[in-house]
Amino acid sequence: MYFQRKNILLYLINISFLLSADAENITHSSTQLHHEFQTTGQIQSTLPLSIKTPFAGRIKEIFVHDGQIIQKGEPLFAMDDETTSTQIKNSLKQQKAKHDATEVKMHQAKEQLTLINDAIHTLTAALERAVYRQDDEESHSLSQQIQHEKEKRDRLETQYQLYLQTLNQQRHQIENLQLNQLKRHSNQQNNLVLSKVSGTISHVRPPSHRTLPNKSPVCRITPTQPYEIKVTLPKKLAYLFKNHHHWVAQHDAHTLTLNSYELKASSDKIVAFFDYDLPEAPKTSTISLLIKDDSSH
Q1: What is the CATH number of the domain that holds 243?
Q2: What residues contact residue 229 under an 8 Å CB cut-off, 6+ apart?
Q3: Are residues 36 and 168 in the same domain?
């Protein structure tokens, strides 16, 4: 019941955000199955795309060559993340060793605290007897010992809290490393890089067995379609774009495919790019579009 109420509240908040999109010159209509945005897009010339490695690793195989014409969705190259996986495995092993060492120190500190508290209890009882006997000299000596033990306890309690804080941080780091390890085991398809556009291949990197850094250039693609449509939307629509993955744009009777989108933190906007699949060359720099979630098709 709690999650149902939470989902309803999020939906109502989302609707209120979308209704306020009139200020951005975007109108929105929604049903339970669809989201639609009436807006305009900017027609611009396409530029060669630089295709880069999605993570640090070795290129296992390159499937394209210079001058080759490739279709959208075809494989470009395959990554071998064995080096990265080994690095994660080694980091996980080191982090677990640090965690175990910290845990031992924390248990030792806890045992010492128990001994100190026992000593303080014993000294306090002896002090009470000395005071009862009115033995000032022994009372003074016992009071100093108790004070000394309490100071040791305070320092040890501070150290214990530091061990506890370090232990929690190390556990968090171990969980993150284990999560990365699981992702690499369960998402092996991510090692295959596919083309996002149709076009001509150039600047193919020569084969190499060395490990490449993340986002290393592998090749370029000059798109077959000379134009693309750029659409700018308010950041408040980011939730919809992240949770609905079948966005299309309609112009008259033509349906245009979403190529990519990105969140511009500096301008607080979403910038989406649609393929220009219209039968004739553009006559103006702007175009009216109906952007919709086509998930049901």
Answers
A1: 2.40.30
A2: 41, 42, 43, 44, 249, 256, 273, 274, 275, 276, 287, 289
A3: no
Residue 24 lies in a domain: yes
The reply to whether 85 and 176 lie within a common domain is yes
Q: Give the pTM.
A: 0.45
* Mean pLDDT within 15-36: 48
Grade residue 13 by pLDDT with cuts at 50, 70 and 90: very low
- What is the per-residue pLDDT for 112? 94
Q: Which domain holds residue 68?
A: 48-224
Phi-psi label, residue 127: left if phi above 0, alpha if psi -120 to 50, beta otherwise? alpha
Residues 115, 100, single domain; the answer is yes
Domain count, the chain: 2
- Cα–chain center distance at 54: 14
